[in-house]
Write a structure and sequence with these properties.
The complex is a heterodimer of chains A (220) and B (482). In chain A, 78% of the residues lie in helices and 0% in strands. Chain A has 9 helices and no strands. Mean pLDDT of chain A is 82; it is low at 201-220. Chain B has 482 residues and is mainly α. Chain B has a domain at 275-482. Helix content of chain B is 78%, strand content 0%. The two termini of chain B are 30 Å apart. The chains are: A mainly alpha (220), B mainly alpha (482). Chains A and B meet through helix 4, helix 5, helix 6, helix 7 and helix 8 of A and helix 5, helix 6, helix 8 and helix 9 of B.
């Protein structure tokens, strides 16, 4: 495998980590949706590049699914839902942006330190992509716990999923990648339908997941 | 003979899938309830035939000694729950909590869930198993939110978010297992086939396996409901329809545990890898102690028994974590008895909540006086779940504690403490629920008590006498689990 192919793969995977950081500091709902579309676009390009250098044409399907479903349909649908439910205000955070970014940097360092030593035999491409994808997954988890409203939690979850798709394609020759990405698209579609159908906003007057907790039973 | 066997395996998957499609078509609720039960019964009968006929492992599906126990248990409880569900659901329709179109959806989803669980148990491919467990999660999420009350939606949302994170972590672990296998087995489906993985595990890179197991234990552990990943479980049990609570506690938690066990077998086959036992023992013990304390201040009857499920999954994880033939044997028995007892309890709780129109424990009083059969059924179920003799759970808990005493006395003491705490809490609640002055509406129930009584009879009988052939077989399976 020549150097250029590797460099492009690393550029795209590293770009995904960068976009994950951008997701962390968005404080407007529409900004968040646009950056998520960018996230999905980068993952789609990255998967397509892997399909090209691994000579694995079936990965193009995964790339196409990521592009169509997650970079176009989902952001557009969420855009409509956000407008319809009237929640395009600023996003409430649990922890300040500064601390979140610092924690994020820590997580990226952690995942590189964990992944690189143990995947020494796996080949350069797999190693570094796995380290990057673990970073994306951990940043997504960080986003889910540092945000309170349902839409940003869903976006955090979908960025985790992008990280997983990157990991699955980096593990060269892994079977069922297409099936798994289809299964994930179903979850994502259901989530978005869920937000809309359940009308969390309408029923609870807020998308703040924290507010749902007062409905929990179990008081005497 | 093997061709016939693979036909049987296909039937176990196709029966629920086809009946799900059929159930989505019909409107008549009495008929769909019956069809649901008949389909579940047919699946159960087919699965019992796997004792006799054993197909060759294929690329995607496998039947071995380990998963037969799980499949027969799953299809049996699925069948009895479908009988309970028929009478429970028609009452929900009468009381107007569900509309006929929701009911149709409910029955179809019930069979989809059965399909997903059977597929997860039968799959020979770690990726396929992951997809199946994900499907099972999604169907239960929809079912938990079925009533569409604010509380039900909150529970479904929480379950969805936590379950998805768990399932995402599990997928990362699965990818790492594939990577570990790839350098030994080579690329392709073989490197994800369960039967190949276990055979080749000694040659895998132990560091990759260690990291993979951490992700898998956290991921699937979320679905098992282990503390501190349990937050979804009480809400999902309390707010969904009661048949789903029974299936969740009795079956789905087991299926997730089964996934953990499969990977534990890979780990223990590799000499260089971290021992998976201590991690599981810690999580298990934590779950037992935490749930035992939480049992004291619950005021919702379904939430109470959901915490009890966390406690028992903790005991089972603890037993499998200790490992060795005796502890595994105890864990296996405990898993079966817990499934039977807990679903029986949920059957009775379902009828009680329908009669009284509430799930609040302080509003339910003196059941043995107002509804003798139901009340005593609940008493019997709670006695069994507390682990009092002569029920089967007493025997399995006794085995867990004694086998631990020989190897790690301090752990056995801690576990015993958790069990006693839980017993005290349940006793305190049972006293008010079952005895004293009856309180609230006492309309007679038209429900069928056969499923509940059948489960309780099995648990009692198993505590007194277990056929030697069955014991020998369980001991053999326990030996395989390592």
């Amino acid at each position: 495998m020549d150097h250029l192919a590797l460099d492009v793969a690393h550029f795209l995977a590293g770009g995904l980590v960068l976009v994950s950081f951008m997701l962390l500091y968005q404080d407007r709902m529409f900004g968040l949706l646009n950056i998520f579309a960018l996230h999905a676009l980068v993952v789609s390009l990255s998967v397509a590049w892997q399909a090209h250098i691994q000579l694995a044409p079936y990965l193009y399907i995964t790339a196409a699914i990521a592009l169509v479903v997650k970079a176009i349909i989902i952001p557009v649908a969420l855009h409509h839902i956000v407008l319809r439910l009237g929640i395009h205000r600023t996003i409430e955070t649990v922890v300040g942006i500064g601390q979140t970014m610092l924690a994020g940097i820590g997580l990226v360092a952690l995942s590189i330190m964990v992944m690189l030593p143990i995947t020494a035999e796996a080949g350069t491409l797999t190693r570094e992509d796995l380290a990057f994808s673990l970073s994306v997954i951990l940043l997504g988890l960080l986003m889910m716990i540092s945000r309170r409203n349902a839409v940003s939690q869903v976006i955090g979850f979908m960025s985790i999923e992008n990280g997983l798709i990157l990991a699955a394609t980096a593990a060269k020759g892994m079977p069922l990648v297409v099936e798994i990405s289809v299964a994930f698209s179903i979850i994502v579609a259901l989530t978005v339908v869920g937000i809309f159908l359940f009308r969390i906003r309408e029923r609870f007057d807020t998308m703040d997941v924290h507010a749902l907790e007062r409905f929990r039973g179990g008081q005497p | 003979m093997t061709e016939f066997g693979s036909l049987l395996v296909d039937a176990i998957l196709l029966l629920p899938a086809v009946s799900a499609a059929l159930l989505a078509l019909f409107r008549d609720d009495r008929f769909t309830g019956k069809l649901n039960a008949i389909a579940s019964f047919a699946t159960f009968v087919t699965s019992t035939s796997l004792f006799v006929v054993r197909p060759e492992p294929g690329t995607f599906l496998i039947v071995d000694d380990v998963n037969v126990v799980f499949i027969v248990l799953t299809t049996f409880v699925a069948f009895t729950t479908s009988v309970f569900s028929a009478s429970y659901i028609s009452h929900e329709l009468e009381s107007g909590r569900l509309t006929p179109s929701y009911l149709r959806f409910y029955h179809a989803m019930y069979q989809v869930l059965m399909f997903a669980m059977n597929l997860a148990l039968l799959s020979n491919n770690v990726g396929l198993m992951w997809v199946a467990i994900e499907l099972a999660t999604l169907t239960t999420v929809v079912m938990v939110g079925l009533y569409r009350t604010p509380a039900a939606l909150e529970a479904a949302w929480k379950y969805f978010i936590l379950g998805s994170v768990g399932i995402a972590l599990a997928l990362f672990g699965t990818i790492l297992v594939y990577l570990a296998a790839r350098s030994v087995v080579g690329e392709g489906l073989e490197a994800m086939a369960w039967s190949v993985l276990v055979r080749e595990a000694p040659r895998f890179d132990p560091h990759l396996l260690n990291l993979a197991f951490a992700f898998l234990l956290l991921g699937y552990g979320t679905k098992v409901g282990l503390v501190p990943l349990h937050a979804w479980l009480p809400d999902a049990h309390a707010e969904g329809p009661t048949p789903i609570s029974a299936v969740l506690s009795g079956l789905l938690l087991n299926v997730a545990l089964f996934a953990v066990l499969r990977f534990k077998m890979i780990m223990s086959a590799n000499p260089g890898a971290l021992a998976p036992g201590p991690l599981m023992v810690t999580l298990g013990l934590l779950s037992v102690l935490f749930a035992a304390l939480m049992l004291y201040r619950r005021f919702d009857i379904k939430r109470l028994f959901a915490y009890s499920s966390i406690e028992h999954m903790g005991i089972i994880t603890f037993a499998f974590g200790m490992g060795g033939p005796l502890a595994n044997f105890a864990g296996l028995l405990h898993m079966i008895y817990h499934s039977l007892t807990k679903s029986a309890i949920f059957f009775s709780v379902g009828h009680i909540a329908q009669i009284k129109g509430t799930q609040r424990i302080p509003d339910i009083r003196g059941l043995t006086a107002s509804h003798p059969l139901l009340g005593w059924g609940l008493v019997l179920g709670v006695i069994a779940i507390m682990g009092l003799p002569p029920t089967g759970i007493f025997m399995s808990e006794f085995l867990v504690i004694t086998s631990t005493f020989a190897r790690a006395p301090a752990l056995a003491v801690a576990l015993g403490l958790g069990l006693l705490l839980a017993m005290g809490a349940l006793l305190q609640w049972l006293n008010g629920l079952a005895f004293g002055e009856p309180h609230g509406p006492d309309t007679p129930s038209k429900a069928s008590y056969v499923p509940m009584l059948a489960h309780l009879a099995l648990v009692l009988a198993a505590g007194i006498y277990l056929p030697p052939s069955l014991v020998a077989w369980f001991q053999y399976v326990a030996g395989l689990l390592g």
